[in-house]
Fold this protein.
Amino acid sequence: MTGTLVLLISILFFAKKIWDYLCKVPPVPKLANSWWGPGGHHAEDDGIKSLKIIVSDDVLDDLRHRLKNSRSLKPPLEGTENEYGINPNLTKQVVDYWLEKYDWRKREIYLNQLPHFKTKIQGLDIHFIHVTPKSSTEHRIIPLLLLHGWPGSFREFYEIIPILTNPQNGRDFVFEVVVPSLPGFGFSDAAVRPGLGPPQMAVVLKNLMLKLGKDRFLVQAGDWGSVIMSNMAILFPEHVIATHNNFCMDLSMKAMLKRFLYGLWPSLVVSEKYKHLVFPTTKFLSGLIKETGYYHIQATKPETLGAGLSDSPMGLAAYILEKFLDENGELTKKFTMDSLLDNVMIYWVTNSMTTAIRLYAQASHKSVKSLHVDRIPVPVPTGYARFVHDAVYSPEALLKDKYPHLIHVTDLEGGHFAAMECPQILANDLCDFTEKVFSKHHG
């Protein structure tokens, strides 16, 4: 009996030690303006250059040649749809449309309707869209940074930008919008040395906003953009007014322990309507493992994967568009084929897939992990547009440690690429959140 008691006390003692460690918040690190471009650190160029997207005929001719000469795909297994990835028959439909109906020159005109720029930040040419609303004495102008993730791009925001930059009924504010291509994505330069993870990208993009004269600004993001956004708020709360998130998740050990415990009484944290999206925990974890195989290979062997994706436009399209399939396995129910191929083309014409997926590996780099930013709470007001068809549905109880100032949570119909899929819904939620942030209580 005495031995059992000693063992129990020992277990409780070590459990308490582990819990105390998990609850301990590391200090906020101080990150320098590291130089990520070629050569040594030298004076920054203050210039901002206008950019027009123009792809050479040689690149387009080469693309058409590759598409026309793509190998035939093996037929799918009988009775299957997209269980094993995007269906080969659907891939063929995409390639056929790309060859026969998609007109890049017309899409260039569409993309160039918004003003594009480039500027040098920490040795990298950073591409961004900057849309300023018309001056108005009736509307407050609020700077807003919009961040994409993978396999997205600045193209995701084309449908929502006009909504955000024009006055909406009943609102006394309008947004001045900045949409960068993340370093290594699209028309932004990639780092030439290891270590450019989410915290370091937060520094680069904060410096972009400061260069544009925006000392205080809101940020809205999903996917990797939400990680970079949270890092930015943690590192620079003096500049980030608030964060609006359409992909909130805490996979820390502490959050996972809470998830297991709440799994015993799910009704404490989630309504019956959405319980199946969260519990049982074993189902959640198995689903996460099933849908994140790409994450592991991109985090460990991005160069190997990039070799194939950079050489085959059909392979690139299949790899990207599989992530855009909706909950019913449809591609064009919520998106147009032109908009989907615009995004694929941005990766193809810039040959940026390899450098984009390096983000997964750099997020695990020792220079990132040693900062422990993922264990530090976000210190600014946070909103969560919780789209119920996204990959993860996070109850508030599982977010309170990471987002202690979570002042706005709404359940919305939509999926992972919300700005592109349901721009008006996302814009409305962002505006509702912004009103809360600037109210007397949270201002």
